[in-house]
TrEMBL record:
InterPro entries in the cross-refs: EmrB-like, MFS, MFS_dom, MFS_trans_sf
TM segment ranges: 12-32, 85-108, 142-161, 173-193, 205-224, 236-257, 278-298, 310-328, 340-356, 376-395, 407-424, 483-500
Entry protein name: DHA2 family efflux MFS transporter permease subunit
Major localization listed first in the record, in broad terms: membrane
GO BP: bile acid and bile salt transport; xenobiotic detoxification by transmembrane export across the plasma membrane
PANTHER family: MAJOR FACILITATOR SUPERFAMILY MULTIDRUG TRANSPORTER MFSC
Family the entry assigns: Belongs to the major facilitator superfamily. EmrB family.
Record-annotated Major facilitator superfamily (MFS) profile domain positions: 19-506
GO cellular component, one term: plasma membrane
Keywords: Cell inner membrane, Cell membrane, Membrane, Transmembrane, Transmembrane helix, Transport
Amino acid sequence: MAQPQAPHPPLTGTQLAIGTVAVSLAVFMNVLDTSIANVSIPTISGDLGVSADQGTWVITSFAVANAISVPLTGWLTDRIGQVRLFLASIVLFVISSWMCGLAPTLPFLLLSRVIQGAVAGPMIPLSQTLLLASYPRAKAPLALSMWSMTTLIAPVAGPILGGWISDNISWPWIFYVNIPVGIVAAGATWAIFRNRESSIKKAPIDTVGLALLMIWVGSLQVMLDKGKDLDWFSSTTIVVLALTAIIGFAFFVVWELTAEHPVVDLSLFKKRNFTGGTIALSIGYGLYFGNLVLLPLWLQTNIGYTATDAGLVMAPVGVFAVLLSPVTGKLLPRTDPRKIATAAFAVFALCFWMRSRYTTGVDTWSLAVPTLIQGIAMAGFFIPLVSITLSGLPGQRIPAASGLSNFVRIMCGGIGTSIFTTAWDHRTSFHHAQLTERASALDPTFGQSMAQLGATGLDASQRYSMFDRLVTQQAAQLGVNDLFYLSSVIFIVLIALIWITRPERAGASDAGAAASAAH
């Protein structure tokens, strides 16, 4: 085992600027790829001669591989080193992106996406670690603010950029765009961080823990991605996947808590700050990401927006997120991070409450205002909660903690998406049934409506068909309003979870100090 190294001094001047840009570019490229392919699935499926349902595996394959590899970050870091692992992730991500663009068949594309997802896993956790270690202890919040801007903007930019590329160029370019970005990020990373490697220790490989992790995470991710298509638990496939995930998870927890060299350090959940911060961040992210999928879907299916226009409605969220994230980073050393996170959750609640009052005649301004305000919440979302999560941890545990926290967050994002899309279907059906109960000749309002439609020259079947379309649209509107309102309530409840933590002041937190010593 290598001897412990003395902490590397923080970067300064041009080196600090280049290092920050390098890490941020890598993160942006990574996060962008989780959403850029979503709107291009019909185009990819048609070009490769497969069904749209088969095409969705382009998303699923990446998500499964990524979800499995993220919590392995700490384990891999111990054996490879932070800088080497981060650089390898970028280079392999570029190569796999190139393979995705060249894919002549769906199986080749899926293989490339699996590789891409797997090598992308350590990139986000290590980006946090490298950034924190590059900044002086007192400026750790500023480092987190730079990191959060990329992770907040990329999911919004992905669908817009993906739709534009598919419509105006060709779908392989949604992957090719990673190549120049990745080359610049890799070159800058090598130039700045190559002499700041962490110590390496050779420990036995936890093959049982790794196998159990792959089994339960893979089963859960496929279940979440395919549940809606297969009508959830009415499908034998989904039932088997759910049982496999539950049993695999139970065995995984028991094994990892007793293994001498666990592949995932579950003992981190003994830390109050880590547990409270991770759960609050992950559930909040699940709500945010679920709504990020739900809002454009509702706009396209219920309000008549195109995919590009629906993506543009989401764009204003980046305005305040970019402008205020550095402000949050400067305030955090002098402010209790729980207060900033509480304010962010309250603003999120306000935004979703405003959306819960939408009607089918909603105008562009009404759509844009909550989205614009949501940027304020996003600026105070990641930074204080990541600071709380890593507070009080020694340097050598930062990569593992960051990897595990990001893993839980990513899984909650997938769970949130599945829950929201399924719940919208259920609430729409519920409201449709309630509204059609009044479709009786004995109801005077219904009778009057039918008479008015008849006066326009429509026959009986046409009148009932138009009524059904109106009811379906209104039911979908009421269903989505229910979910917006529920999101608002949950964000208020989550505030209590923030206050079970007891972080140190951000400017002197062990998170910043530990990360600075992580090398």
